[in-house]
Amino acid sequence: MSQPFSADYLAPDSASSASSEVSAWGLLRLRQQLEQGLPLAPRPYLALAERTGLTEQEVINAITQWQEQGLIKRFGLVVKHRTLGYTANAMVVWNIPDEQVQALGQSMAGVPFITLCYQRPRRLPDWPYNLFCMIHGTNRERVLAQLESLIADHNLQHIRHSVLFSNKAYRQRGGRYVSHD
Amino acid sequence: MRLDHTDQQLINHFQRHLPVCERPYLEMSRQLGISEQEVIERLQSLQSRDVVGRVGPVFEHSQAGASLLAAVAAPEDQMDMVAARINRAPGVNHNYAREHAYNLWFVMTAPDNELLEEHLDELEQELKLPMLRLPMVEGYHIDLGFDIDWEALS
Known about the structure:
The complex is a heterodimer of chains A (181) and B (154). Chain A is α+β, with helices and mostly antiparallel strands and 181 residues long.
């Protein structure tokens, strides 16, 4: 695993030789702040700088660097789909032979209506499924029709699967890896 | 919930690549043809209506720390209570009811795997319910920043 708290996350080739001296604590505090979301003020990065003991430029550099390194994979509005009307959200789980799961996962990843697709371990005997995909939809019939087309297109007619629609969100928010509840 | 055209445009353009500069909302406002103040007010409104959870980063979980999908089988008539207990556990960021014998599905995060397992052990002992722990083996596609189908929602 990488070391997300290290000051090395700032660009070593930064014009400022101070980059290596950017406070690791400041960067940790910045990550904690970012997990709560960006302030909605004209200069949000300055606001973050004031809360973390960094400068505005250090905050901007760190966020840019974290995006380039892939620690931040997306930076923008995080939509709550359920509020918008995406209420038919299905987690479809499959029991795929081990030697086929990777190829199938990669293939399903390219299907436009599949929003998430990953492999997880089986937990026998209760849980025989090793491939998960998610379909976010606005109505159940349409999602089930998409599932039918997925089964036909990938020859999954004989694969055991289960469809788990979500009917309530008890919590939905961003991951808080370094900040406390 | 119905959104006006400008709100839709805000979401269409800025689920990713939010500007990282001194005045990001000013930069966004130029692209949308509205004022910086209006961008800020619309973002505040979208957040207060719970359409947008937050503006900011989505961290790559494998780099950011530890996270794990888990499920428990709760008695139907106790789901709300069990869900509330799960939400009180540290680091739970998603928790959904799903139609299955394993009917509560949640994601727990922690700074590292050791702490994560510890927190799950504690929760499992408290709940005394069967629990599945399903760490990710491989992600093939993980992106909830997909284009919103406004037509289907209207």
